[in-house]
Amino acid sequence: MDITRLLPVIAPLAETKDIAHKYAVHLDELLSSIRPEAIGDAYQAALAKEDIPAAVRVCAAHFRAKPDAGAPSLDIRSPYSKDVADRAVRGEMRVINIDWTFENGRINYLFDPTELKGPRNYEWVWQLNRHSFWWQMAAAYRETGNETYALAFERQLLDWIAQTDCPEKDWNAPGSAWRTIECGIRLMGSWQIAFQIFRHSSRVSDLSLLLMLASMRRQAAHLVAHPHIGNWLMMESTGVFTFSALYPEFREAEEFRETAVGRFLREMDLQILPDGMHNELTPDYQSVVWGCAANIYDVACHEGFRHEFPRHFVELMERTVHAAILLSTPAFTQPRTNDCYTIHTRTFTGRADQLLPPSAEYDFVNSNRREGRPPEGKTASAFLPYAGFCVMRSGWDENAAYLCFDVGPLGRMHIHQDKLNINIYKGGEELIFDDGGGQYEISEARKYGISAYDHNTVLVDGLGQNRREPLVSSDAIDAGWVSNDRFDYAQGTYDQGFGPDMLPLARHIRRVRFEKPGFFCVQDSLTSADGSEHEYEVLFHLNTLKVDRLEAFPGAMISDFGKTYEVLILPIGDGQETGPTVVSGQTEPFMRGWYVGRNEETLHKAATVGRKSFPSLSHTFNTLIFPIKRGDALPEVHRSGSRLTIVFNGQTHEIDLDALNR
After folding, report:
1. What are phi and psi of 152, to 5 degrees?
2. CB within 8 A of 315, min separation 6: which ones?
3. Is it the case that residue 78 has pLDDT exceeding 80?
4. What is the reported pTM?
């Protein structure tokens, strides 16, 4: 259609001629891409007469009158924050914990405050353009009926279309509002929710609704033409499927839907490991991929396309949830491995209970242990042999002791230099932490957060591990896993490079024994790989500034979290070690003693407890780690050669340091 015929219709929405032309192009694309017969006789008659106002009116009425999407994933997320909605109306944005207020409430979608304030974080612009605030505004509108939310939404929508164009190339580059992951997230979430709610407002114009549909169709076409990889492709495919399933009126809807389903099924098979973990080895992105699978299946079930998803797809979903349950801490959260913030296991089981066949495991988590039963197994502990996570737990009760030991590969993406890392919980409290690596910013804190220096592992000559492969294990990993009623045991080896030059300095074997029900023995054996003597250092990280020495045990340190449980770190030394040292908030000559917060935490000082060996060809650190309830008695430890006799919580334990697996 001649664009000039559309300009008089579109002009009232536009502030400049250039913007009017852009809106007119969008409207023309919409009118060309919709099947006229899907809208009805009145629409076809208006098009035949080239009566654009009538065509707009009839088309918008059709989409306003459609039944609400039935999929729960497209309903308002609960609970919502009216305060967030009100601030969004005023242009007050909080993205990745960084606040910015746009003048007169008019959002500049390409503005990056981190360029002014630092540290630079390209995620601010990208995540602003996910429009998560729209579903908050939609929720407030549905609850209150206040048209202020609808009018603000319309203004923000029109500004976004006016300000942003899909680049001809480098659409995933910094500063782009058309990065493919954002397009997918918009199409499967915020834009759909906003459209479903605000189409019922008489204050949102017919033209604005149609321009929104035109933009959604543009974004879907962009994703079909330019697929990415990894978890991005899952979000992209879910967005394309959601759009094409909800709006079959578009000519390409069937083609888009088939493309999205095919890509998603192939990637699900590739990305979910045989043990159920996602191949990026982070619960954060495990939850992203699970959420995409749940969303696409949810929409398919409610829009009549369930038959296109084979039983195998459902089995992959079940496997994914089962792995998350096995990995759960006593608080039903996930340990933060690789890039990760605190993920609640109910993120998986809550949706699984709605979409998948009934499971007592889901009931157990969702009811907080009141119903159902935990996963079946010889013990409560578990080994995920492809991810390489050894999960040692005393039981499934809320006060259980828990350790996660990483003997696996790097992960497909979002990797940390953290092989052989451990983190320890007692009940709902994290005693030895992995902080998840911080924000995706350009800063020294981010470099520290993903390095070995911020993990509970070993340095050689002050250098941390540095490896590039393997990303994923194609075979099950042999960790020497033992789990019985008395103890759990696993071991792993790091024999790759150290430092920026990836120098082959030493071989590190870590053996971990969980003496049930209550303490851990961590043994770190280091051997020179280049024939030279080296200084070795073992690190443990505590999220507190209060760590005290204990007179009763040489070299022992105990935390002072001030909560229910403390952690006692007790070295079993041979006289060839120095320390321990406790460092908090160090920045020079390198960072040490920090908690690099991700989403629910900000960067703050913590405590790094370290012990060093004297320069040698080989050295073994033996460390006992006790979770202790405040006010309870300390353990008794007696040593005879390699054998330890330990009295703890009224029980006597015998451990042979030369045979931790027996």
Report:
1. -65, -40
2. none
3. no
4. 0.95
* Fold equal for 69-366 and 382-630: no
Of residues 229, 231, 195, the one with CA closest to residue 211: 195
Contacts of 363 (CB under 8 A, 6+ apart): 353, 371, 372, 373
| DSSP character at residue 556 | -
DSSP 164: -
Confidence at 93, pLDDT banded by 50, 70, 90:
very high
- Strand 429-432 relative to strand 422-426, pairing: antiparallel
Output the CATH code of domain 382-630.
2.70.98.70
Backbone angles phi, psi at 130, to 5 degrees: -85, -15
Q: What is the DSSP letter of 174?
A: T
Q: How far apart, in Å, are the Cα atoms of 346 and each of 74, 135, 335, 413, 501? A: 19, 21, 14, 24, 42
Asked if pLDDT for residue 1 goes beyond 70, the answer is no
Q: From residue 384, how far is each of 278, 335, 402, 406, 661 by CA, in Å? A: 11, 14, 15, 10, 18
The partner residues of 538 in beta bridges, in order of sequence, read: 458, 611
DSSP strand pairing (636-640 vs 382-384): unpaired
**Cross-strand pairs, 401:** 426
Alpha carbon separation from 163 to 101, 104, 126, 129, 185 (Å, rounded): 18, 16, 14, 12, 19
* 298 torsion bin: left (phi>0), alpha (psi -120 to 50), beta (else): alpha
Q: Which residue has the tokens 């082959």?
A: 504
CA dihedral 629, 630, 632, 637 (to 10 degrees): 70
> Within a 10 A sphere around the Cβ of 489, how many other Cβ atoms?
22
Q: 493: Cβ–Cβ under 8 A, 6 or more apart, which residues? A: 507, 508, 509, 510
Q: Name the percent of the chain lying above pLDDT 70.
A: 100
Rounded to whole angstroms, what are the CA distances from 634 to 206, 630, 631, 637, 652?
72, 10, 9, 10, 13
> Could you tell me which CATH number the domain at 69-366 has?
1.50.10.100
Between CA 212 and CA 468 the distance in angstroms is 43
Output the six-digit token pair for 162. 């006016």
Instruction: Decide: helix, strand or coil at residue 162.
Output: helix
b/e per residue 318-357 (b: at least 16 CB within 10 A) = bbbbbbbbbbbbbbbbbbbbbbbbbbbbbbbbebbbebbe
Asked if 306 contacts 300 with a C-beta cutoff of 8 angstroms, the reply is yes
Per-residue pLDDT tens over the stretch 476-530: 999 999 999 999 999 999 999 999 999 999 999 999 999 999 999 999 999 999 9
- Averaged pLDDT, 598-604: 87
Q: Where are the domains of the chain?
A: 69-366, 382-630
Place of tokens 């040698």: 616
**pLDDT tens digits for range 212-256:** 999 999 999 999 999 999 999 999 999 999 999 999 999 999 999
Three-state DSSP at 549 gives strand
Which 3 state secondary structure label does DSSP give 511?
strand
Q: Each residue of 377-404: pLDDT tens digit? A: 999 999 999 999 999 999 999 999 999 9
Chain mean position to CA 262: 24
